[in-house]
């Protein structure tokens, strides 16, 4: 019944006079928001094993050549359950959603819906509520779609092109082409969760972790303190989201180790944490000096989360740069932000 109500609302005829539509616009939007909120609350009470039925109902709407394509991705994000109710169907859901992300003309709304679903599945798999999902094979898609969500253009070398394969065509060629296409910060937050939680400590670093490090290197030039483009806020939020996801993962793994529990994914090794910090901390340092106020605010919050990961490493890095700002004439303008 809930799915039918969503379908009726989305495809209801709206051939009323313009004045009537204008007066009813706010009411319609509020009704849609309440209906979506109801769906999110209701899925916690869905019967276990209902995910295949949800996929069967939504799948006919996931054709990109139909008018129902946008609604199909929206319904998929709303109605696919998470946690134990998704057990046995996680891999099937991931396949459907990854197929959605493969379209070159995917809109920001579609990607937000897709990444919302993937992030919920990822967290459920990471904590052991559903079967393990191998994220390394989807890393190229996550890499390219995250670049698109950030709205930056990356110059890829031949080795990276070979790794990405067919997904390389999804990397934006020009940053300006996406200036208004991806306004939602929630998309970058979910992308960061997928990239961090998808790393398996037992898998060679050439897989999910290396993709994340490549992504951080690709956006390095956009983190320069003098930059103040429209992408800066999204990039700062992404750095914060990666730091928060890393902190959450390390805290979860520490609690599991203290309780003697095994996690579905092998914990991050010290060398993995060092590699991640070596790539992320310099970007956060540049963001701390940014002339964009929101970028600086995101960076300061990211410092707190990164410090939890390895206090002695992060603290020493920032202490060295703070000392340099206080004692070097050419860096004195950075003293205030460093302190």
From TrEMBL:
Q: Name one GO cellular component term.
A: nucleus
Gene Ontology molecular function terms on file = peptidase activator activity; proteasome binding
Q: An example of a Gene Ontology BP annotation on this entry?
A: proteasomal ubiquitin-independent protein catabolic process
Q: Which InterPro entries match?
A: Blm10_mid, PSME4
Read off the Pfam families from this record. Answer: HEAT_PSME4_mid
Where would I find the Proteasome activator Blm10 middle HEAT repeats region domain in this sequence? 213-338
Signal peptide segment: none
Q: What is this protein called?
A: Proteasome activator Blm10 middle HEAT repeats region domain-containing protein
């Amino acid at each position: 019944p809930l799915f039918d109500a969503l379908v009726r609302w989305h495809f209801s005829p709206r051939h009323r006079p313009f004045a009537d539509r204008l007066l009813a616009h706010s009411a319609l939007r509020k009704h849609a928001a309440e209906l979506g909120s109801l769906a999110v609350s209701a899925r916690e009470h869905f019967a276990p094993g209902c995910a295949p039925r949800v996929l069967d109902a939504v799948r006919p709407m996931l054709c990109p050549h139909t008018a129902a394509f946008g609604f199909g991705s929206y319904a998929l994000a709303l109605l696919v359950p998470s946690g134990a109710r998704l057990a046995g169907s996680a891999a099937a859901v991931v396949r459907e959603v990854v197929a959605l992300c493969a379209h070159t003309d995917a809109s920001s709304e579609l990607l937000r819906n897709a990444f919302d679903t993937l992030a919920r599945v990822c967290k459920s798999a990471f904590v052991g509520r559903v079967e393990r999902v191998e994220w390394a094979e989807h890393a190229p898609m996550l890499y390219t779609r995250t670049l698109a969500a950030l709205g930056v253009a990356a110059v890829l070398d031949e080795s990276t092109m070979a790794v990405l394969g067919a997904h390389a065509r999804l990397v934006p060629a020009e940053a300006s082409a996406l200036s208004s296409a991806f306004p939602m910060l929630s998309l970058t937050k979910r992308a960061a969760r997928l990239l961090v939680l998808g790393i398996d400590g037992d898998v060679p670093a050439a897989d999910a972790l290396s993709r994340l490090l490549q992504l951080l290197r690709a956006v390095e030039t956009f983190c320069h303190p003098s930059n103040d483009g429209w992408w800066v806020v999204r990039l700062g939020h992404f750095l914060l989201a990666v730091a928060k996801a890393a902190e959450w993962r390390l805290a979860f793994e520490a609690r599991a180790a203290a309780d003697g529990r095994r996690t579905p994914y092998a914990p991050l090794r010290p060398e993995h944490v060092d590699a991640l910090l070596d790539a992320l901390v310099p970007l956060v340092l540049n963001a701390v000096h940014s002339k964009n106020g929101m970028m600086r605010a995101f960076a300061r919050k990211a410092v707190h989360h990164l410090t939890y990961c390895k206090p002695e490493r992060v603290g020493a890095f920032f202490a060295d740069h703070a000392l340099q700002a206080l004692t070097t004439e050419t860096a004195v303008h950075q003293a205030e932000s460093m302190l």
